[in-house]
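Researcher: Quick one. two chains, 236 residues in total.
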Amino acid sequence: MVQDVIVSVLLIGGALMSLAAGIGLTRFPDLLSRMHAATKPQVLGLLLFLLALAVENGSWVLVPILVLCWIFQLLTSPVSAHMVGRAGYRTRHLQRELLTLDELDDIVAKAADEVDGRAAGDDRARTAGTAGSPAGQDDSPTAGPPDRSEA
Amino acid sequence: MTTVTYLVGGILGIAAALALYRAVRGPSILDRVLALDVVLAIIGAALVLDMVVNRHLDHLILLVAVSLIGFVGSVTVARFVTDRK
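Model:
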């Protein structure tokens, strides 16, 4: 009886995590905030569901397998989120007026400045006006194709 | 316990419908990848729900496989995304 109550609470909690992710995906304005919502069922929701399975099963034999499953998700989900966020930043799938802090912008501008300086290595000195506009600098040094069109 | 099963199934269905709405509607391919990742997480949750309700452990390997598919898919799409039409 107590076991059933615990399992029910854990299951409903995990399902509410999924529902929060669904609502967040539908209502949030841009890619980065949607990524914030999408991580809930991947980590915490899965943890609650696996705990429900462990409590319902009631044996310690199962626990290492469940821990392995959760650790695997815990290792892969930040990597894929990093890749998606990086691609979204480079292809400008974000609304800059929603950001409170963009630390990467200075670094990208500085790196683009260095690339510019190296390209204009001969005495054709470039005027310093190019470094001012952050949205115009999209040739970051390590990026693949520079994408100029707005989505 | 039956009530809880239907309740959890209903919540998961609503969540999957909302995520699929974003996957259909999403303005960019990254939004779609993100929404389909959430759909995969909900599918994993449904697999665990089935294991809890029917008291078996057959879907554990499917759970690992689903998370692996989500990882490989989203990394691949994010690697090759461009905006050129």
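Chain B has one domain: 2-79.
Researcher: Thanks, that's what I needed.
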